[in-house]
């Protein structure tokens, strides 16, 4: 393992911690330090911390690995299970971010969101390592379509699913394709077992004015040759937190001599950034200069005269 810190210290636990304490500590820390839950500038540090948390959990959640670690420290993890992980590299999944992922993962795939103990449930109908608990209820998977205004302001609503009516809260700025997990909101478990989970994949209906890339919105602005040459004041589409539908207009200055393809960035005029305490993304305006196909005789004379003066 690359982590040199004590694994108990990483998870904030004592050496006598129970299995449930280890699992709870992992879930809490994974939610707090998931790279998708922080700003872009904090992602490198979050990824490092998240991998550290997962490495600690992979050892302490496995009774055999934990026993070897308690006896021999980090050296014991190199030869526990015969030097190899019986599941082919741990429960890290394709992303390398461990056995659990938290909501708000913009991948929308949910392929890494599984409990390693569910492997035993799928094949044997009980939890692993001798704990014969009844398997939980069935997980439910739905798509939730949202209007643009719901993405701007967030939404708290009640939806109807197979398990009944469920109240869900979607944060402002949520991305299209985000998968959010609502624990215990799936189908009831048999014989008093825990209920399954509800997974919602968010589908955002974006207005035609915008394209979204990450936390940035892009919009096109078409101006004519005169505006590009001598400059102008024009209006562009932005996110307006005071507007009922979240759309608004803002005035910007087109500098004289603006070239086709010029990009103008409006800071903090885009969508809210999820869990960023009020921060907003930017809007980038792509300037397109329209060249007229048909000119009147007078327009040709004016342009011809202009060309003569610059020769």
Range of strand content: 15-25%
Task: Report helical residue fraction.
Answer: 25-40%
CATH superfamily of the largest domain: Urease metallochaperone UreE, N-terminal domain
Return the average pLDDT rounded to an integer: 79
Largest sheet: 4 strands, mixed
Distance between the termini: 72 Å
Predict the CATH topology of the largest domain: HSP40/DNAj peptide-binding domain
Give the helix/strand class: alpha+beta
Structure annotation, total helices:
8
User: Rg from C-alpha positions?
Assistant: 27 Å
Widest β-sheet, arrangement of strands = 6-7-11-10
| Poorly predicted parts | 80-131
CATH class of the largest domain: Mainly Beta
CATH architecture of the largest domain: Sandwich
Q: How many separate domains?
A: 3
* Oligomer description: single chain
Number of strands: 11
The secondary-structure element order is HHHHHEHEEEEEEHEEEEH
Could you please describe the fold and organization of this structure?
It is a single chain. The longest helix is centred in the first third of the chain and has 18 residues. The chain has a four-stranded mixed sheet with strand order 6-7-11-10. It has a three-stranded mixed sheet with strand order 1-5-4. A two-stranded antiparallel sheet has the order 2-3. The chain folds into three domains: 96 residues, DnaJ domain (Helix Hairpins), CATH 1.10.287.110; 103 residues, Urease metallochaperone UreE, N-terminal domain (HSP40/DNAj peptide-binding domain, Sandwich), CATH 2.60.260.20; 82 residues, Urease metallochaperone UreE, N-terminal domain (HSP40/DNAj peptide-binding domain, Sandwich), CATH 2.60.260. It is an alpha+beta fold and 311 residues long. It is elongated, with a radius of gyration of 27 Å. Strand 6 and strand 7 form a beta hairpin.
């Amino acid at each position: 393992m690359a982590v040199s810190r004590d694994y108990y210290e990483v998870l904030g636990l004592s050496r006598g911690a129970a299995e449930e304490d280890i699992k709870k500590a992992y879930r809490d820390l994974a939610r707090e330090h998931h790279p998708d839950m922080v700003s872009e500038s904090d992602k490198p540090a979050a990824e490092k911390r998240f991998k550290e948390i997962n490495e600690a959990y992979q050892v302490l959640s496995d009774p055999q690995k934990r026993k070897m670690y308690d006896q021999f420290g980090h050296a014991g993890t190199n030869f526990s299970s015969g030097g190899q992980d019986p599941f082919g590299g741990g429960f890290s999944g394709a992303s390398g971010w461990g056995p659990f992922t938290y909501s708000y993962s913009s991948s929308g795939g949910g392929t890494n969101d599984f409990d390693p103990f569910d492997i035993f449930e799928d094949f044997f109908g009980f939890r692993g390592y001798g704990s014969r608990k009844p398997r939980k209820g069935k997980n439910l998977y739905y798509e939730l379509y949202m209007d643009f205004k719901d993405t701007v302001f967030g939404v708290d609503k009640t939806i109807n699913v197979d398990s009944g009516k469920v109240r869900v809260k979607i944060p402002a700025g949520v991305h299209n394709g985000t998968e959010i997990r609502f624990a215990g909101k799936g189908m009831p478990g048999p014989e008093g077992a825990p209920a399954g989970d509800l997974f919602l994949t968010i589908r955002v209906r974006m207005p035609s004015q915008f394209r979204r890339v990450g936390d940035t919105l892009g919009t096109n602005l078409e101006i004519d040759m005169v505006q590009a040459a001598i400059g102008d004041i024009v209006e562009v589409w932005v996110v307006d937190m005071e507007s009922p539908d979240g759309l608004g207009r803002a005035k910007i200055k087109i500098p004289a001599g603006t070239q086709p393809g010029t990009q103008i960035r409006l800071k903090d005029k885009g969508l809210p950034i999820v869990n960023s305490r009020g921060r907003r993304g930017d809007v980038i305006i792509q300037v397109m200069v329209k060249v007229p196909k048909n000119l009147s005789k007078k327009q040709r004379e004016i342009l011809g005269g202009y060309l003569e003066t610059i020769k």
